[in-house]
Amino acid sequence: MKRCMFVDDSSVIRKVAKRILGGSDLVVIEAASGRDALEMCDADMPEIIVVDGALPDLPAVDLIRRIRAMQSLVRPQILISLVELDVASIMRAKRAGAQGYLLKPFNRPQLLECFRTLKIAA
What we know:
Blueprint: E1 2-7, H1 11-21, E2 26-31, H2 34-43, E3 48-52, H3 60-69, E4 77-82, H4 87-96, E5 100-103, H5 108-117
Parallel strand pairs: 1-2, 1-3, 3-4, 4-5
Helix pairs in contact: 2-3
């Protein structure tokens, strides 16, 4: 069973993602901050990580780099989550190790299509 971590300081975003994606083939875990995410990744690296582009405690690019630097058998797929299409932010995230981006707020079809495109979930 794959694990997906949503790193976002908004409990609403995390809960909506969990409601949409949670199911028999995917477990969605939540991190409210970049530091929480680092601790959770260090303990048990998820296969998929969606990082808020505007975390209050740690820049998203730094979080992505730090996750990529961790020694783990799992190399997660990482997406940056943004409130508007910002090509410069997307490119910085990709250079840090992200595979793509997700615009929020998202709905069920958008989120599922994003995951289908990456071939990482239903």
